[in-house]
TrEMBL record:
Keyword check for Oxidoreductase: yes
Transmembrane segments: none
E.C. numbers: 1.4.1.3
Pfam families: ELFV_dehydrog_N
GO molecular function: glutamate dehydrogenase (NAD+) activity
Signal peptide: none
Class of this enzyme: oxidoreductase
Keywords of the record: Oxidoreductase
Organism, scientific name: Salmonella enterica I
Protein name (Swiss-Prot/TrEMBL): Glutamate dehydrogenase
Domain Glutamate/phenylalanine/leucine/valine/L-tryptophan dehydrogenase dimerisation: 42-131
SUPFAM superfamilies: Aminoacid dehydrogenase-like, N-terminal domain
Amino acid sequence: MDKLSYASDSSTSAWNTYLQQIERVAPYLGELSPWVDTLRHPKRALIVDIPVQMDDGTIRHFEGYRVQHNLSRGPGKGGVRYHPDVDLNEVMALSAWMTIKCAALNLPYGGAKGGIRVDPFSLSEGELERFDPPLYQRDRHYHRAAERYSCAGCRHQR
């Protein structure tokens, strides 16, 4: 198994937890075992800068992530995590778990997930509303057009 250059070495990261889970179930996959290595590699990951105009007129910049783990079953499905500690490793793991969940339920979706490093409780409703367009409209072309992306709960949740 090749280590991803951008993945954390931390044994406590969500991504490493996911990889450990894959290792535990690999012996039971039978004819699907050749695909185990595919589950260890996200299809694509994007890190974006999200400039947001605050209510007082200033512009603040936030780091955002979008990961499409696997699209073999259909468009990537997954929501957005708004949290001050979210990082690429966590979003990779969440997108991978979406891949597994959709496959387990035989849904015609792949796994995807987004994340924005922000404390949503420190912002107004208007400021939170201004997060979605930059992340999902401006960068949509990167994810191979809208038909390859299905957002589950893209709007923030308080």
